[in-house]
């Protein structure tokens, strides 16, 4: 499976962006797709995840209530809707895929830059 992330850009604080992650190749209902982000000089942090089959989601505390992840099974695409963006949300955002019950992510997207100006 290959992942292609898109939708990043420059936005003012308080604005919104929608990221997309398209999966190509053979997908499975036992997969979970997660979003991570890495700001300059910082570690890569978990942002959100969604189980491909059930749609169950999880979010980092820092984005709860502002970010929403959803999936379009027909299009093999997962979205991350980001509202009320803050300058501290500035980072390169990555999508990644793993099997439920496993800890290692087997596929990563190329990353998309999100910049929030104050």
Q: How would you portray this structure in words?
A:
This protein has 118 residues and is mainly β. The chain is 0% helix and 55% strand. The protein has strands at 2-6, 9-12, 17-24, 31-38, 44-51, 57-59, 67-72, 77-82, 91-99, 107-108, 112-117. The chain is globular and about 40 Å long. It starts with a strand and ends with a strand.
Oligomer: single chain
Instruction: Please give the share of residues in helix.
Output: under 10%
Number of strands: 11
Estimate what percentage of residues fall within beta strands.
over 45%
> What is the terminal-to-terminal distance?
37 Å
Mean pLDDT: 94
Poorly predicted parts: none
Element pattern in H and E:
EEEEEEEEEEE
Helical segment count:
0
Short description:
The protein has 118 residues and is an all-beta fold.
Name some characteristics of this structure.
55% strand, globular, 118 residues
Topology:
Blueprint lengths: L1 E5 L2 E4 L4 E8 L6 E8 L5 E8 L5 E3 L7 E6 L4 E6 L8 E9 L7 E2 L3 E6 L1
Parallel strand pairs: 2-11
Antiparallel strand pairs: 1-3, 3-8, 4-5, 4-9, 5-6, 7-8, 9-10, 9-11
